[in-house]
Amino acid sequence: MKDCRGGTRMHDKIEILENGSLIQHGKHNDRIYLMKLKEKDVPSILETLSKLAIEHRYTKIFCKIPKWAAPLFYSNGFLLEASIPGFYNKQEDVLFVSKFLSTDRLLDVENSQLQELSKLLLEKSKTAKSSKKTVSEFKVKRLGKTDIESITEIYHEIFLSYPFPIHNPDYILKTMDENVQYYGVKVDGKLAAIASSEIDKKGENAEMTDFATSMTFQGNKLSTLLLEAMEKEMKKQGIRTLYTIARLKSIPMNKTFLRFDYNYSGTLIKNTNIAGNIESMNVYYKHI
After folding, report:
1. For the residues of 99-168, what is the DSSP string, one character each?
2. Domain end: 56, 91, 106, which one?
3. Long-range CB contacts (< 8 A, 24+ apart) of 51-58?
4. Are 185 and 230 in contact (CB under 8 A)?
5. What is the CATH number for 101?
6. Is 191 domain-assigned?
7. What are the counts of helices (DSSP H) followed by strands (DSSP E) for the chain?
8. Global model pTM greater than 0.70
9. Closest CA to 98 of 59, 47, 57, 52
10. Alpha-helical runs (H) found in 145-281
């Protein structure tokens, strides 16, 4: 797929394994991401991931797993990077574990941003429940198929790269038909800001993700407005746990989630190719 700025976008591929586990892998993020683990793939999943990593010389294996599978992964050299309690139906925890296959993947971590994050978390712990101010002149609406072109235009404008092909209209359409709901703010009929909720109805959780505001409308706290509206909608739909994986470098986005009383649960080191580089990501969650 061609970038509107002239470059060629590269994306990792998503595959379903024989017993139903879901992975994403490729050189774009230079990793394997185990997105969903099926019990039937245990313990053979470890050998599958290892062989794939060796074949393609990936430098990280990143896995999202239920807590019951943790001992198996720990025994195979995986490290805990983050966790969310009560992720599945407010009962079972989810863990984000990783195996680093190159020391370079652990070098040049964003130390200044980590120190700033520590200050934010310390300030948060000293303050009472945050107040949330929204911008009443703007309204949030759920987006549909007629908005796909506008959605991809904003993602082209804001993200030089992204871990999933959100710049591709076909991908947006596919996710809309599956488990992703897109929300946006329009000004005079033009889309100004967007975000999405990736919903796991069976597990009663949703990822609040893909936040982007057009350059023209930045500074109006539209991400705050979107997050508040999306939270209300998720609660109506029976979702009980919300989470996000936010860029460590995006301190304003981290502040937004902390302001909405999300809990910081860990940092995924050098995990995601976003905005042109592989960056570390912070995990936040909230029970509603």
Report:
1. EES-GGGGSS--HHHHHHHHHHHHHHHHS-SPP----TTS-EEE--GGGHHHHHHHHHHH-S--SS-TT-
2. 106
3. 52/23, 52/25, 53/101, 56/25, 56/26, 56/27, 58/25, 58/27, 58/30, 58/31, 58/32, 58/101
4. no
5. 3.40.630.30
6. yes
7. 7, 13
8. yes
9. 59
10. 148-158, 169-177, 222-236, 251-259
Query: Two tokens at 18?
Result: 């024989």
d(CA 163, CA 215): 21
Whether a cis peptide bond, with omega within 30° of 0, leads into 43 is: yes
On whether both 148 and 266 belong to a single domain, the answer is yes
Q: Which amino acid is at 161?
A: S
66 pairs with which residues across the strands?
94
pLDDT in tens, 154-200: 999 998 889 889 999 999 999 999 999 999 999 999 999 999 999 99
Range of the domain at 208: 111-287
Enter the tokens of residue 27.
Answer: 């050189």
Residue 226 in tokens? 């979107």
> 171 and 215 share a domain?
yes
Residues 59/27, Cβ–Cβ less than 8 Å: no
Tokens of 171: 């991908």
Is residue 40 within 8 A of residue 74, CB to CB? The reply is: no
pLDDT of residue 107 exceeding 90:
no
Q: Write the CA distances from 183 to 40, 150, 212, integer angstroms.
A: 36, 12, 11
Q: Is the pLDDT of residue 133 over 80?
A: no
Looking only at the bridges linking them, the beta strands covering 79-88 and 92-100 are: antiparallel
Q: DSSP code of 209?
A: E
E strand or H helix that includes residue 52: helix 44-56
Please check the confidence at residue 92 and state whether its pLDDT lies above 60. Answer: yes
Q: Do 126 and 269 sit in the same domain of this protein?
A: yes
Q: What is the C-alpha separation between 132 and 211, in angstroms, rounded? A: 18
